[in-house]
Amino acid sequence: DGGITQSPKYLFRKEGQNVTLSCEQNLNHDAMYWYRQDPGQGLRLIYYSQIVNDFQKGDIAEGYSVSREKKESFPLTVTSAQKNPTAFYLCASSPYFSSYEQYFGPGTRLTVT
Amino acid sequence: DQQVKQNSPSLSVQEGRISILNCDYTNSMFDYFLWYKKYPAEGPTFLISISSIKDKNEDGRFTVFLNKSAKHLSLHIVPSQPGDSAVYFCAASAQTGANNLFFGTGTRLTVIP
Fold first, then answer.
1. How would you label A46-60 residue by residue, b for 16+ Cβ within 10 Å and e otherwise?
2. Which of A58, A60, A69 is nearest to A102 (CA)?
3. Is residue B3 classed as helix, strand or coil in its secondary structure?
4. Which positions in chain A touch B25 (Cβ < 8 Å)?
5. Helix (H, G, I), strand (E, B), or coil: what is residue B99?
6. Chain B residue at shortest CA distance from A57
7. Fewer CB atoms inside 10 Å of the end CB: C or N, chain B?
8. Are A40 and B102 within 8 A, CB to CB?
9. Could you report the average pLDDT of every consecutive run of 10 residues in chain B (113 residues)?
10. What is the structure's pLDDT at A52?
11. How far is it, in rounded angstroms, from Cα A19 to Cα A11?
């Protein structure tokens, strides 16, 4: 059945290391998004991609990078430049960029020590 | 600057009673509003939405009310069930284009059996 998968569910890294979070969707959606959630805060947009080989910065893109080489995949790299990388990361997709409704994956909790 | 606010971090309601979750926004250009439900360690799931041309939208036990003059929307759940216990996020968009989806900070609803 269709959906969005994120792996792993929990990820631990040492400070100074880059880490890549996986996001795959088999919904045939054009648009994909990465959000970050911190305690007591709403979801904040990191990067989004309207279509393959295209992506744009969101509100908090500093210290992150993405790629969109395939329609179904939108990996997020948290670089060592990200000051506070410990957070819950959510990937989402929508049928096309102008869709209001987004479908979310289960999330990855990243802990950096 | 939080453009979408959920001022109640938590709400407890008895099973069978009505749950009312509130959301306020500041941007008068928002024209579409959504509610998402999130269980622990899972991604948010879309619940119900409303366009700014309406003031009410119902879907089963869930009804969303929009008061544009007050820049306020609310989600009513009647009757509340223990399975409704989750965090509820409201979100708003100013235009077609989901890169402009702004999320509130969430309200944790607990339905007491």
1. bbbbbeeeebeebee
2. A58
3. coil
4. none
5. helix
6. B99
7. N
8. no
9. 90 98 94 92 90 95 97 98 96 72 93 97
10. 94
11. 9
